[in-house]
Amino acid sequence: MTLLELCYNKPDLILLDSTNTLLRAQLPHYKQIEPDQLKLRFQRLFDALVNCIETNKIDALSKFMKQVSRERFEAGYELGEVQIAINTLEESMWRKSTELVDSDKQILAMKEVSNLLCRAKQILLSEYSLLSKEYISS
Fold this sequence. Notes:
This protein has helices at residues 3-9, 11-25, 35-55, 59-74, 79-100, 106-137. The chain is mainly alpha-helical. The chain has a single domain (3-137), classed as Orthogonal Bundle (Globin-like), CATH 1.10.490.10. α2 (11-25) crosses α3, α4 (59-74) crosses α6 (106-137) and α5 runs antiparallel to α6.
C-alpha cells in the first residue's frame, strides 16, 4: 500500500486515532469539543493534507492553515494547543504508515507527511504572529 492508498482507503482509522489521542491530551479548548466535531476538524486538515500529496503543491494546506489560524486565534486558542493538534495527526499518520504502508515506501511516506505538516505549523506560527501584532496595535 502507498501513502495515497492509505489516505484513500483508511481515512477513518487515521481520523479516529487522531481524535482519540487529542481527547486524551485534555487541552483546554479541545476537550470542550464533542468527539464528532473534533473528528470533523481533523477531516478538514486531513483533506488539505491529502490534496497536497495528490497535487504535490502546498496551496490547499496553506489556505486551510491561514483560515484555521484566524479562527483559533479569535477563539482564544493558545498557539501550542493548535500545534499539538497538528502533531496528533502527524503521529497518527506515522503509526498507520508503519502498520499499513509497504515497508519499502514507509520512510518516504513519513517524510512527506512530516514535511507537509511542518510547513502547516510554520504557516500557523506566521499567522499567529501577524494576528498578535494586529491585536496589539488595535
